[in-house]
Specification:
This protein is α/β, with parallel strands linked by helices. It has 12 helices and 23 strands. The strands form 4 sheets. The protein has a 6-stranded mixed sheet with strand order 1-5-4-3-2-6. It is elongated, with a radius of gyration of 33 Å. It has helices at about 90-105, 155-170, 175, 275-305, 315-330, 345-350, 380-390, 425-430, 435-440, 440-455, 470-480, 510-520, and strands spanning about 5-10, 35-40, 55-60, 65-70, 80-85, 90, 115-120, 130-135, 145-155, 185, 190-200, 210-215, 220-230, 240, 255-260, 310, 335-340, 355, 370-375, 395-400, 420, 460-465, 490-495.
């Protein structure tokens, strides 16, 4: 085989002495293939082509040369050269662009995937009126990205508190972690579960199930910065997302815990039976309990073995978790402060030695050294407690977000007198060097005590399912206006089709009567169908808010 008639670079065809035998052995250049983009170099006979770009169109021939077609560059016909491998190199930039284009074509979805997300409108406060639904097309998968399907997430007063922090810019906001691309809107985030639908990262497989901070949406596309393998002591593997402007002390919020991965035997039944229910409780309580456990540690380190504590907002789940941690280390006197509406609920939990309402502050015992754990962030209440306890009050630990601070009137002492602000991210760093933590097995105790706390709270708190936009807004409005029951915990999803139903009223007498009244008064929708049970304990659910309404059309 001989090359076709074409222009050859003069210096690329060496002369051979007379009488010498030709050696037509075919020589392959590594990495060169038909269609490869190349750059010509080191030509001496035709130096005007040095640096020009072309494409390999044939070869290698018997003489070891390749046919390279040069770009036209304004000429009527492209120039064809016969070059030795030493006279051209791969155009890596063009090759990368080619590979990226092919990958994008392969990753392009047909039909396109639409995302439904809930965002907050700037300048409209935090009521449900500020919630806006957005339907957008999910972008194509770029390199080192993952597309996650957000299965479910938990929402509570704690989540609203984080949203409030970000809204007022007092602290770093959760919605700053997941910035929204459209001006005039921002988003928050909640703890939830997500499954990887698509992945262009070599170490994150499709089907990997993750636990971490997710925004309220159906699909979530994020770049992956790296992965952390499973630890030797049982620490779970992590997928580290890339977030812009992430403060170092909050970097844990960009880490997604690997719950299960394809091929893992222990993850096969992760969401079956009781495990499914326990993971819902984990969504609701894990971060709350961890934060309360750290509050207890901070109190132990700063105050030693003080044995009396007052906790405001005693009906809040974080406050109940703190009371549980205090009682776990045999705190002698734990007092709860709550509203009149929640008094009986707080007493029924039996987590506090005594429970008072806010208008009974003057009746609090003041004959012992005590610490006030301030979840309410009401300056007037804090001042009244300070005056009541006098010198027996060691200090106030402010736990709630500072933006909820209610201004006090007739202030009689210096602002922030005996006040300590609890910072969970700072304590996470500090506890690694504190002897009371490192030498007493606190990490193991945190892990081992959590299941017992879940079992304790399941006696008093019921899970409520929230499915779809309308149900989420109704729940959000109840949480925001503080009309929701302290005995409710919310598991949310924006996938309305899940389960084939829209709203379940079920589990218990009250839910059945509400449904019955709606049917009897003809106020129920003709498109609603009800599945009922009187076993309140089934699934730990008393009433499910959600759009789990099966359509009767078609």
């Amino acid at each position: 085989m001989t090359p076709p008639p074409q222009a050859q670079a003069q210096d690329s065809q060496p002369c051979e002495p007379q009488g010498a035998k030709a050696a037509p052995a075919q020589v392959d250049a590594p990495g060169i293939f038909k269609g490869a983009p190349v750059i010509v170099r080191a030509l001496q006979g035709a130096p005007e082509y040095n640096g020009c770009k072309g494409v390999v169109t044939a070869g290698p021939f018997e003489n070891g040369r390749y046919e390279v077609t040069m770009e036209a560059q304004g000429k009527p016909e492209p120039k064809v050269l016969s070059l030795k491998p030493a006279n051209f190199v791969l155009d890596t930039d063009a090759l990368k662009e080619y590979v990226s284009t092919k990958r994008a074509e392969k990753a392009r979805r047909s039909p396109p995937l639409e995302d439904f997300a809930l965002v907050w409108a700037k300048g409209k406060g935090l009521s449900s009126k500020a919630l806006v639904s957005k339907i957008t097309q999910v972008p194509d998968l770029a390199a080192h990205h993952v597309l996650m399907r957000v299965e479910k997430f938990a929402f509570s007063q704690m989540g609203l508190g984080y949203l409030m922090k970000g809204f007022t810019r007092t602290f770093n906001a959760f919605h700053n972690f997941y910035q929204y691309g459209e001006d005039g809107f921002y988003r928050s985030a909640c703890w939830g579960y997500a499954t990887v639908m698509e992945s262009s990262h070599p170490k994150v497989a499709v089907g990997t199930r993750l636990y971490g901070l997710v925004p309220p949406c159906r699909y979530h596309l994020m770049p992956v910065g790296g992965t952390i393998p499973r630890g030797k002591n049982g620490e779970p593997a992590m997928v580290e997302l890339t977030m812009t402007d992430m403060p170092f002390n909050l970097r844990r919020f960009q880490e997604m815990e690997v719950v299960s991965a394809p091929g893992e035997q222990d993850g096969a039944a992760e969401v079956d039976g009781e495990a499914s229910l326990l993971e819902d409780w984990r969504l609701v309580l894990k971060e709350i309990y961890t934060m309360a456990f750290y509050m207890d540690e901070n109190l132990l380190v700063d105050t030693g073995m003080i044995n009396s504590v007052i906790i405001s907002c005693a009906s809040a789940k974080t406050a109940m978790a703190l009371a549980y941690c205090l009682r776990m280390r045999e705190m002698r006197y734990v007092v709860g402060l709550t509203s009149k509406e929640h008094l009986e609920f707080v007493k029924a939990t039996d987590l506090y030695h005594e429970v008072y309402t806010y208008d009974q502050v003057e009746s609090l015992p003041n004959n012992r050294t005590i610490v006030y754990m301030d979840f309410k962030c009401d300056g007037e209440l804090r001042q009244n407690i300070t005056l009541r306890m006098g010198t027996n009050l060691m200090y106030n630990m402010v736990l709630g977000p500072a933006v909820f601070q209610k201004r006090m009137e007739d202030q009689v002492f210096e602002k922030r007198a005996r006040e300590v602000l609890f910072d969970e991210s700072s304590w996470r760093e500090r506890r690694r060097m504190v002897a009371e933590v490192t030498k007493t097995g606190r990490n193991e105790k945190l892990k081992d005590s959590f299941p017992a706390f879940v079992q304790r709270l399941r006696q008093h708190v019921k899970l409520r399912r929230v499915c779809g936009e309308k149900a989420f807004k109704d729940m959000y409005d109840a949480v925001y206006s503080n009309t929701s029951s302290p005995g409710d915990a919310y598991i949310c999803t924006l996938h309305e089709e899940e389960g084939g139903v829209d709203e379940i009223w079920g589990g218990g007498e009250k839910a059945f009567k509400d449904m019955y009244d709606a049917v009897y008064s003809n106020t129920s929708s003709p498109g609603d169908a009800y599945i009922c049970t009187l076993h309140e304990e089934e699934g730990g659910v008393d009433e499910i808010w959600g759009v789990r309404r099966e359509s009767l059309q078609g």
